[in-house]
Amino acid sequence: MLRLLLIVLACAETLAQDNATNKTDADSAATLTGVTANGPGDLKAFIAALILNSIIVLGCLIGFTFLRLTFPMVYSHEKARSKESLSVAGEDSSDSSTSRCREIRSRMADWLSYSISTSTETAMERAGLDAALLRDFCTLGATICAVIGIPMCIVIVPINSVLGGADEGDDHLSLAEMATIRENHPWLFYVHAVVVWLVCIIVHFVLTRAQARFLRLRVKWLTRMPAPRCTTVLVENIPCAWRSDARLREFFGKIFSPEDVLSCHMVKREEEIAKLVSKRETLQQMKRKAELTYEKTQQVEMFRPSFCGKKVETLEYCNSNLEGLDEEIRDLWQKHQEEHERDPTARTSHCGFVTFQHRRVAEMAQNLQISADLKEWNVSAAPVSRDIRWNDLRKSRNLSKGSEIIGFLAVLGLYVGFMPIVIFITNIAKLVHLGPLQPIWQGFAPTLGLLLFLSLLPTVLMIIFRTFFSLKADAYSQHKLQFWYFLFQLIFVVLVTTVGKSIVDRAKDIWNDPSSAPQLMAESLPNASHFYMTYLVLQWARHAMEMLRYVPLSKFLLFKTIFSAEEAKEMSEPEDQDCYGFGARNVNLAVNVVLGIVFCSISPLVTIMAMFDLALARITYGYLVIYTETKKPDLGGVFWATQIGYIQLALALYCIFMVGVLQAKSASHAWVVAAPSLLFVLWSFVHIRRAYRWEKLPFQEVAFQCEEVLDEKDFEDVAGDCYIQPELAALESVTLTA
């Protein structure tokens, strides 16, 4: 939402500036996204944005403090929830009003101390490793921006201001930038060339330390993984001859020993039973809601079965549809069982779950090359059982490949069709005439297409991933969103001024002449530095507004009128995972770090604004993700590893950018000094991936640590039951009701 606010502010700023100062082409990507060239009015716009967003941040934090005390079940962590609710309700009559007020005041800001002082290990235990690392990435990004941005402001900015040759009438923000350097001091370009090397070395050192710490956390997370997940593997692309529970158990019993295999469960193609079980659960929930509504309000709840149908009593509708449903499910299951006895491979998918008795056997199974055909017997770690996408696992391999090609083309179409879609919607918006307000409307109309496109983009991408891609678990859709959404923001936010009128034409130009990339970046990016200052300031309000959790709060208040507080809390969670999941949040943070690195030499103030943004994100997410939101399925640091790659990509872009700037602005050969830094960045990329192999648990940890952690009680009453399909597990309740 804050990105939309940014577009509106940028558009208003464009109206206030002289049209001659705008260097972008008509209908270019930069123009459509509201990116404006540096101009005389930028300082006023920046100060206005700074004041406005500071007020919004302060107001949101104050509002969160009071909402947290008023609705502790929505905003507070478990330890403080009972005390806060008791304090606010005033149920402790033995305390004086003075002591209660003092207690409330002391707890109004204790969330800040929780956010700052909580260790990564504690955060990992409470919310998972991905949540803890989301918070730590804010710290890492703020640290990088601080160690390169603060020295730049202390050393480079005064040199640029004193020795630079800013033209008369330039905005005061330009005095602190590299754009003021002219040929009157050519040695300054060599200083900036050396600075490029220093930035690359410093960031590499910071990333190396961060990755070493991540590796320790990853090993600890893998070691503490609970059973049966840690002893269960997902086997995909099983040959047809082995597609049954008994045959699969026999196969792994021969590879290891029969005693090592605890249970095997093939994924069954029971779509019909799954639909009936889902229908049964939905009707039971509707029935319970209708009964609670009648108990509280003495009113009969009505329900419209179809869009154009007549309303009927919900309770009567549910009872009539539930009647005979259990018998239908049992008869269908019996029919499928008879079919399975005739053909054991009938109604089985290509994958299944195998649970072993010991952790070391499961780790060995993941590292085996079982078949000479690499497409068969693919063994991987099992995801969290409650997050598994059983419908995707039921798909055939050929169908999955075909749908993934369609999904990839759909995602590619979003990138290629971005500008045509925005221009089309913009032309429709321009057909509206508002009379005297038409000049203002003409300034805002070009952004309407972008407003609609960007607000729906994460949701559209998630729909594509969940529809066309085969995902083992829903958390993997967040990881796909992290990649594709970052690529979109990198092109249409960070590098939008270099795109021109068509991303396809620009890609062709760079493909035909790769050496033109530095020149393209040098010609466009420096002229938009003031815009990105304002952009980063506007991100402050986005972090603060997430603290309010207005959507979960609204759901909680609505459901609480019918259900109990605990049920209302469960039904109002989690928050929208398309825009507020690990994928989108990591992307937004990564883009801000990229901006801070890319502009650190051209405009150090951009880096400082990124530092403040990431510091605020560290405070908000340090409490919000760890102590307020529900715990999400954990991939154990996959998002973090991808974020490190994005920072290294930002370093590569920074080197290319600075080579182009030094080559364009100076007749000297300062760019020759900076150019080899790109090779250093490539070496850093390879070195970090080879030195810190985080994907799998080292076998020495399996041999000496895991066997001590796992006890016999971890396997009591497990037998792989966590990895049975929900519709098959629900058959037990259907049988019991019989």
Helix content: 55-70%
Report the average pLDDT across residues. Answer: 80
Q: Count of helical segments? A: 35
Q: What's the domain count?
A: 3
Low-confidence stretches: 1-26, 79-94, 708-720
Number of strands: 6
Largest sheet: 4 strands, antiparallel
Radius of gyration, in Å, reads 29 Å
Category from helices, strands and their pairing: mainly alpha
CA-CA gap between termini: 51 Å
Strand order of the largest sheet: 2-5-1-6
Beta-strand content bin: under 5%
| Global geometry | globular
Walk me through this protein's architecture.
The chain has 738 residues and is mostly helical. It has 3 domains: 2-58 and 399-518, no CATH class; 68-226 and 531-710, no CATH class; 229-396 and 714-737, RRM (RNA recognition motif) domain (Alpha-Beta Plaits, 2-Layer Sandwich), CATH 3.30.70. Helix content is 68%, strand content 4%. The strands form 2 sheets. A 4-stranded antiparallel beta sheet has the order 2-5-1-6. A two-stranded antiparallel ribbon has the order 3-4. Helix 10 packs antiparallel against helix 31 and helix 31 (638-665) packs antiparallel against helix 33. The longest helix is centred in the N-terminal third of the chain and has 37 residues, at 187-223. The protein is globular.
